[in-house]
Amino acid sequence: MASQQVVRYTLVFHTPLEAVETCKAAIFAAGAGRYPGPGGYTECCWTAVGTGQFRPGDAANPHIGRVGALEKVEEARVETLCVGEDVVRRAVDALKKAHPYEEPAYSVYKMEDF
């Protein structure tokens, strides 16, 4: 009988630079960034800096900028591994609690193992 593979996910999120370390600490505490295997690697991620933009709508309560005005912000894009659906769900919940934005930008991708 073949061994059961745990499903892996990539969590990607964007955050203003002043909140990067807070968001990373939250997702890592939830179990994100741990690689399976003998190395015992933890807190693994990839981070790049770029420019995000958004225009808050009439009902928004923006952390940065003001309603109706186009805002451009230097942000970090962070990518990390989550092993198991329970881990990615906990990491997303932790991210939402730690992130300063009203609506954090994030994506979750299910990975294939070839």
UniProtKB/TrEMBL annotation:
SUPFAM superfamilies: NIF3 (NGG1p interacting factor 3)-like. It comes from the Eukaryota. The lineage of its organism: Eukaryota, Fungi, Dikarya, Ascomycota, Pezizomycotina. This is ATP phosphoribosyltransferase. Signal peptide: none annotated. InterPro entries: DUF34/NIF3_sf, N-reg_PII/ATP_PRibTrfase_C. It comes from Echria macrotheca.
